[in-house]
User: Which sequence fits this backbone?
């Protein structure tokens, strides 16, 4: 009986989705498209930073040398994250269910919110390093703290802007998801799907 009910429910939801303006497939496709654009943006930022700092470190001196060094470290990690993200996004996926679309949608928003908090911590750490450099009497340590701090502020600032922008873009899709969810209701006799 449960199997029959769940088969009927799946059939009704799929039928409903064919006629719905915003089906789970439409919302899922939009989510994937937004994630691809943002991941390619992160990859582009990383490659550009790797190129500029890779060239710049050769002739740089003082804190500028350490700035480029930290940029290389930071963006090697960013490029790896972007690469793994792109591999995941271009994998063939099963057809989305309403549940999987909702989970991914809100899971991504929570992840972006957490990342934004980490980005604030990065910027704060960079500012602390820059401030710490002022009290260093050893010129090498002064330059290292200053250069690393500046790079962390720049990279953390970019990531904060990147994550907050992505969070706002994905949150702008919440009303469409809620419209879709509002068309499915339950009562004592079963599921009601409003067209």
Assistant:
């Amino acid at each position: 009986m449960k199997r029959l009910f769940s088969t009927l429910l799946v059939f009704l939801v799929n039928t409903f989705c064919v006629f719905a303006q915003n089906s789970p497939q439409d919302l899922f496709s939009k989510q994937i498209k937004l994630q691809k654009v943002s991941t390619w943006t992160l990859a582009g930022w990383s490659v550009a930073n790797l190129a500029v700092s890779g060239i710049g470190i050769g002739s740089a001196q003082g804190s500028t040398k350490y700035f480029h060094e930290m940029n290389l470290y930071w963006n090697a990690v960013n490029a790896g994250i972007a690469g793994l993200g792109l591999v995941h996004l271009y994998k063939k996926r099963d057809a989305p269910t309403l549940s999987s679309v909702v989970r991914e949608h809100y899971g991504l928003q929570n992840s972006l919110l957490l990342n934004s908090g980490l980005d604030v911590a990065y910027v704060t750490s960079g500012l602390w390093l820059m401030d710490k450099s002022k009290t260093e009497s050893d010129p090498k340590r002064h330059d290292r703290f200053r250069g690393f701090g500046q790079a962390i502020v720049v990279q953390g600032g970019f990531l904060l802007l990147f994550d907050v922008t992505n969070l706002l873009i994905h949150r702008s899709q919440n009303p469409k998801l809620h419209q879709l969810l509002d068309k499915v209701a339950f009562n004592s006799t079963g599921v009601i799907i409003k067209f």
About this structure: Residues 37 and 92 are 18 Å apart (CA to CA).
